[in-house]
Amino acid sequence: MGQINRREFLGILGAATASVALGSQPVLGQKEAKSCVIIGSGFAGLAAGFKLKTAGWDVTILEARSRVGGRVFSYSLPQNPKLICELGAEWVGESHERLKALCHDFKIGLQKHQFDDYLMQNGTISRPSEWSFSPQAKAALDQMIAGYGKLSTLEKNQLDRLDWWTQLEKIGFTPNDLRIRDLMDSTDFGESIREVSAFAALAEYAESSPKNEMDYKMTGGNSRLVNEFADRIGRENIRLGAKVSEIRQSKGIVTVKAGDDVFRADACICTAPVASLRKIKFDPPLPPAQAAAAERLGYARIIKNSVLYDERFWNAENFSMVSDTTSHYYFHSTQGQPDKQGILTAYAIGDKADVLASQSDERRMALITRDLVDFDVNAPKLARGIASYAWQRDEYTEGAYAIYRPGQWFGLRPILARPHGKVLFAGEHLADWQGFMEGAIETGEASAAALLK
Ligand SMILES: Cc1cc2nc3c(=O)[nH]c(=O)nc-3n(C[C@H](O)[C@H](O)[C@H](O)COP(=O)(O)OP(=O)(O)OC[C@H]3O[C@@H](n4cnc5c(N)ncnc54)[C@H](O)[C@@H]3O)c2cc1C
Question: 318 pLDDT exceeds 80?
Fold first, then answer.
């Protein structure tokens, strides 16, 4: 791979996908292939479906849930239907070019969604200007990010074998720097940075530097893009409640079974998250290395808890607070949505997410608002309702997004991305922008492009 960056790496995978799927399987017939069954109506499936449909293909999307959008899920609490929060994907990054272009084409506004973080440690609150990392930690991280583009393949693989915490410790982070960094970065990866490949972490921060991919959200909710895609593909082409259980390939035709229904097509794009992929029966079976890779890839535990308050006691529109409490990270979800009431979302990861997930709504709201009393003693009294979603308990993803543990970025991802005959794979977990809407779209479009070649 030489000096390639993370983005170019997926480009190479995409090219490999095309040549394996079409080159070695001429029966796909290139120009004759006109029908595709797509598994999943998240952004990967919708982006693939839209591209193929625009090119004149017959597209059928099979979606197990009773709604479209997968992990993009805008929501309003019944107590105030005017206010919108996101129980799935939240931020659109400045570097997310495809997402921004689609929003532009479909006339969806992007509104500012940036924050200035307060820090709460042991009940002491520091304003955004009152805390920082040590000068040596800042300098060492800047240097590592600046050197990212020059890393050799060997160095990238060495980094991939380490976890992010160990790497930061190696370059001089103090114990308190590490604790704060863990609180902050674990909201990006969904688990402690002791669990995350140092290469995957560095790549994410270096590729988005100097921004952090937390720039905008879609006006009216991120589900607007879901609906625009679905309307253009045609709702009649999207089957809800269609959980795929089998994919067979024989004599150049792919047969996909969902419940009692059977769908036949020239090709299939499977965007099922790995927990779901593992439950699908393939005939012929997936190669042993690919099946083993699917067994090993894990997903992060994240719970989002959007609490409606009668007053916006946090005052600043761009309020957010990283904390060492169970509630972990608070941010103002209704920035740019004027109202007396407002929503603060508590975003917790890992074991904290499991603790909150086991509580009733009432107890969870009590815990989350109690964690805020050092910031404002009135927080519990002002809370009016809560909407929570624990992604680790979601039947179809068993987590929020894939987490590449040490050694897995280069060890698993390329294997999982390999096409299986006429079945191509797409989804967030295979993307350069892994863990992002942009990545889902990128891989969906790349699969469709491979079929169109
Ligand atoms: C809590 C959380 C926070 C996030 N924050 C951000 C953020 O701030 N910014 C950002 O860009 N991204 C964020 N993401 C990530 C983003 O949501 C995902 O990367 C993206 O939406 C994934 O799209 P996908 O199409 O790959 O998968 P999905 O959206 O999961 O779509 C896959 C679809 O396949 C369906 N399916 C599964 N199995 C079957 C089956 N057997 N048969 C039929 N259908 C099946 C599922 O129901 C699902 O609808 C966040 C995600 C979560 C959960």
Answer: yes
| Average of per-residue pLDDT across 203-217 | 84
* CA–CA distance, 160 with 81 (Å, rounded to integer): 45
Q: What is the pLDDT of residues 353-363, one digit of tens each?
A: 999 999 999 99
What residues line ligand 1, using a CB cutoff of 6 Å?
39-45, 62-65, 70-72, 88-91, 242-244, 271-273, 276, 280, 302, 304, 391, 396-397, 400-401, 427-428, 435-440
Residues 241 and 252 in one domain: yes
Q: Of 47-61, 204-218, 289-303, 350-364, which range is least confident? A: 204-218
State the sign of the Cα–Cα–Cα–Cα dihedral 91, 97, 102, 105. positive
What is the SS3 assignment for 118? strand
**Under a CB-based contact definition with an 8 Å cutoff, are residues 269 and 359 in contact?**
no
Say if residue 155 is in the same domain as residue 235.
no
- Residues 81 and 54 both lie in one domain: no
| Tally of structural domains, the chain | 3
- Which residue segment(s) compose the domain that 417 sits in? 6-70+226-298+409-452
Let me know whether 159 and 292 are in one domain: no
Ligand 1 pocket mutation pick from 66, 102, 401 by most atoms within 8 angstroms of CB = 401
Q: For the full predicted model, state whether its pTM sits above 0.70.
A: yes
pLDDT by residue (tens digit) across 228-268?
Answer: 999 999 999 999 999 999 999 999 999 999 999 999 999 99
Examine the domain organization and report whether 35 and 79 are in the same domain. Answer: no
State whether residue 340 is helix, strand or coil.
Answer: coil
> Can you tell me the distance from the alpha carbon of 391 to that of 354, in angstroms, rounded to the nearest whole number?
10
Sign of the dihedral defined by the CA atoms of residues 105, 111, 117, 123, in that order: negative
CATH code, domain with 197: 1.10.405
* pLDDT exceeds cutoff 60 at 5: no
Pocket test for ligand 1, best of 67, 71, 303, 403 (most atoms within 8 A of CB): 71
Q: Which pLDDT belongs to residue 401? A: 98
